[in-house]
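Exercise: predict the fold of this chain.
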Amino acid sequence: MPLVEIGGTRFFYRIDGAENAPVLIFSHSLGCDHAMWDLQAAHFARFFRVVRYDSRGHGASDTTAGDYTIELLARDALAIADALGIASFAFCGLSLGGMIGQWIAGHAPDRITHVVLANTSSRYLNPELMEQRRSIVREHGMAAVADAVMGRFFTPESLAGNSAALANIRRTVLATDPGGYASCCAAIRDLNQTAMLSSIRTPTLIVSGDRDQSTPWQGHGEVLAREIPHASVAHLPAAHLSNIERPRSFNAALAKFLLPSPVDALAAGFEKRRAILGDAHVDRSIANTTEFTRAFQELITRYAWGDIWQRPGLDDRTRRLLVLAITAALGRWEEFRLHVRTGFEHELEACDLEEVLLQVAIYAGVPAANTGFTNAAEAMK
């Protein structure tokens, strides 16, 4: 189990992505753990070294006695980064994690390149409610608040769907150490960082859920957006755990904020074109380019490969499958065979082609699928 020990307290962490990539740290909500970011880690590990950790009193990290503060929890995050040899990082925190992110951006600006503050607040407007929850958990355990917590985490429609993701969150809430949960409740109860917000100069994205009961836009997100200079805002049709309820929209908002567009779209296009179609194909295309076709080749490279194929919303495998379905449906067999051949040199398998062509049979016609199977079989030889 990956653990770091800081001042006698052990913290669990998990890392995904390439060692030499820029670092993106995710910090979870009260009552959750690092696994609430599973869908974000899978998506952003293509671009970042993704670090997730369990906050003090949560998950596999230790629980220490006494009430916690946001400063303590933020210093934990910085100490974990230090222990992992991470000098600077982008930071995404939701709810309690967003409160931690505010503190780091305000007090350790040299460590943080970007900060995402999702479904969070700079000041808890009803500290009595959090104190009441803290007392209930200390006396009766997590089961006494689990239903109320889930009702604030998610919309009624999501709860009725009873998805695996929501079931996992409920199990995590019930498994959270009551002492650690109560100590973090104290940190939220005493939160008051509004006066600090105007000093934040880190590029900031605020994510707000339109149906968030815990930290609604009015009184919470709007304060962050007003007080943090030049902050960007993304509104999602979600409740409190917007990254789970609307994962693709959440990821798209983060990607737009965190991932810059290529400075040289033509150069980026050639790099992506080689990665997808292979050096031999691209070298032949370059060798066969004439003055008559040069502008067309650059147009395709710049806009198809340097723009559309660079967008982070879909991975390369999904784009390959879309290309195969569209080219088969339209009868663009030369292009179809090219993408079958180059796809099989990378991540595609025969079962992928079978599923694509069965979809083509239903939505574009049996003759197109029949020709597609024939062309695919020839290209796979």
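Check your answer against the key: The beta strands are 3-6, 9-16, 23-27, 49-53, 89-94, 112-118, 204-209, 232-236.
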